[in-house]
Amino acid sequence: MTIRTFHSQLDYVKQELLTMGNKVEEVIAEMKEAFESDNKAQMEMLIAEDSAINQLELDMHDKVTLLISKQQPVATDLRKLIVALKISSDLERVADLVVDMAKQSIRMNKHSLPVYKEQLLAMLRIAEDMITKSLEAYEKSDILMAQKIALTDDKVDTQYGDLIRELFKVEDASVEVDQITQLAFIGRYIERIADYATNISEWVVYEVNGKHFDLN
């Protein structure tokens, strides 16, 4: 394989990873829509379709492993391939968290605690935006954008903490403990999605600078 061909393969890996990222963005958007409208059929569909994203992650792993074993890249080129592996794993985990969110949401009573449902939707919108911007930072190798995304994670953490504190104060006897638990779990999954967006931002910084930075 010539240097030019190898670099074409590197570009292809990046585009494939961005395609995977777009798929993950789609499932987050669908989950948001299903959660807002309490569309359990749509949630079931999201759970069933998760295997497709799992396969994309496995395919990425195979392509990158093959390139490393055949070309034995060093320095920047090696970092690009390692970062592709790491980000694909983070994206696959984000899709898993969407599935977890769907499973918990299916168990929820349609009419339980609507005010907290709105809080969860607000958190999910922020986490969704963080994933989108982290992928844009990766596409553009934009360190400044990556750092700004990580700062937003604090906002999600604060909202998650507020949600948990408020849920523990619920005194309405008609509200089942199980429903409160489902809401707390869903909040945790959204908070973790924001964490993975921060992880992706950290990988962008590593790819460009060659140094690890904890942006959290």
Automatic annotation (TrEMBL):
Main subcellular location: cytoplasm
Compartment annotation: Cytoplasm
UniProt xrefs under InterPro entries: PhoU, PhoU-like_sf, PhoU_dom
Domain of life from the UniProt record: Bacteria
Domain PhoU residue range list: 18-103, 121-204
Any single biological process term in GO: phosphate ion transport
GO-annotated cellular components: cytoplasm
Record keywords: Cytoplasm, Phosphate transport, Transport
Pfam families assigned to the protein according to its UniProt record, in alphabetical order: PhoU
Function: Plays a role in the regulation of phosphate uptake.
PANTHER family linked to this entry: PHOSPHATE-SPECIFIC TRANSPORT SYSTEM ACCESSORY PROTEIN PHOU
UniProt similarity note: Belongs to the PhoU family.
Assembly: Homodimer.
UniProt name for this protein: Phosphate-specific transport system accessory protein PhoU
Organism: Alkalihalophilus pseudofirmus
Gene from which this protein is expressed: phoU
